[in-house]
Design a protein that fits this description.
The protein is an alpha/beta fold. The protein folds into two domains: 181 residues, Vaccinia Virus protein VP39 (Rossmann fold), CATH 3.40.50.150; 61 residues. Helices cover 26% and strands 33% of the residues. The chain contains seven helices and eleven strands. The strands form two sheets. Strands 3-2-1-4-5-11-10 form a seven-stranded mixed sheet, sandwiched between helices. Strands 6-7-8-9 form a four-stranded antiparallel sheet. Strand 2, helix 4 and strand 3 form a beta-alpha-beta unit. Helix 1 packs across helix 4. It is globular, with a radius of gyration of 18 Å. The termini are far apart. The chain binds S-adenosylmethionine. S-adenosylmethionine binds next to loops.
Length: 250
């Protein structure tokens, strides 16, 4: 199930106001990794802010942002010194071209079907140079964070189109949650939407053991593991499972 919101240019226009890049801990974690790599693929790059920042911070190597959602990519394309590609990991092939692949903003959790996850990891492994790294995070299922989404994601911002109105968003997980897929409903109101805009989406919540098994299948080995973007160790109460996995040197 793809989340149609990301294809909606009105939502894409709000995304970086709802989640300001300068306030994002994940950006502080990923940016140094990107700056240290010569070539970087950002899978599910969304509005492209992380790669924008890498260029602004002086990255001179190859930066590629991949995303299936045209709405989000339209924002990303505001910078033309990054390669922007519409698609997903089933539609591209980059054999041995990247030192680093990242998936941020929980884009990894969009891979809900087993076959999609396997295919994605195989493409990522093939895209890495020997010794290259895949860095990403997925929310820790043990803390059942979705139970707090209604308050965590009750957000409002000034209309980015400058109407003077307000855009409001809520996200509510469907309960009960069984298995490792969490379905949720996003509701948006604002000047750009004549009525209530709703969208249902699905995110996968694999545990660390499953993440590691899938990585191993693809030939990737966990090199670093954290429970949050501050590099604290993963515990049962950690909000995130942050992973840097490596491909062996040839
Ligand atoms: C929550 S956004 C995160 C965007 C960005 N990485 C960030 O950190 O702000 C998730 C992104 O994943 C993209 N996405 C959804 N399904 C995907 C897939 N199968 N492969 C790659 N990206 C996907 C969406 O279009 C969306 O832009």
């Amino acid at each position: 199930m793809t989340n149609s919101l990301f294809d909606d240019p009105r939502y894409a226009a709000c995304y970086d106001a709802f989640f300001p890049p300068q306030e994002r801990d994940d950006h502080r974690f990923y940016l140094p990794l990107i700056m240290a790599a010569r070539s970087v693929l950002d899978v599910g790059c969304g509005t492209g802010k992380l790669l924008h920042h890498a260029r602004e911070a002086g990255h001179t190597g190859r930066l590629v942002g991949l995303d299936p959602a045209e709405g989000m990519l339209t924002r990303a394309r505001r910078r033309t010194d990054v390669e922007w590609v519409r698609g997903d990991l089933t539609s591209v092939s980059y054999p041995g071209e990247f030192d680093l692949v990242v998936m941020t903003g929980h884009a990894f959790q969009e891979l809900t079907a087993d076959e999609d996850l396997r295919a994605a990891l195989a493409t990522i492994a093939a895209a890495l140079t020997g010794g290259g790294a895949f860095a990403f995070e997925t929310r820790n299922p043990a803390v059942r964070g979705w139970e707090g989404w209604e308050s965590e994601y009750a957000l409002s911002i000034p209309d980015p189109e400058g109407s003077g109105g307000v855009v409001r968003m809520t996200i509510e997980a469907e309960t009960p949650v069984t298995g490792d897929i969490v379905y949720s409903i996003t509701r948006l109101t604002g000047p750009a939407w004549p009525g209530l805009r709703t969208s249902r989406s699905a995110l996968r919540f694999p545990g660390a053991e499953e993440v590691d098994a899938r990585l191993a299948e693809a030939g990737l080995t966990v090199a670093e593991r954290y429970g949050d973007f501050d590099r604290s160790p993963l515990t049962a109460g950690s909000p995130e499972i942050v992973t840097i996995a490596r491909k062996e040197r040839a």
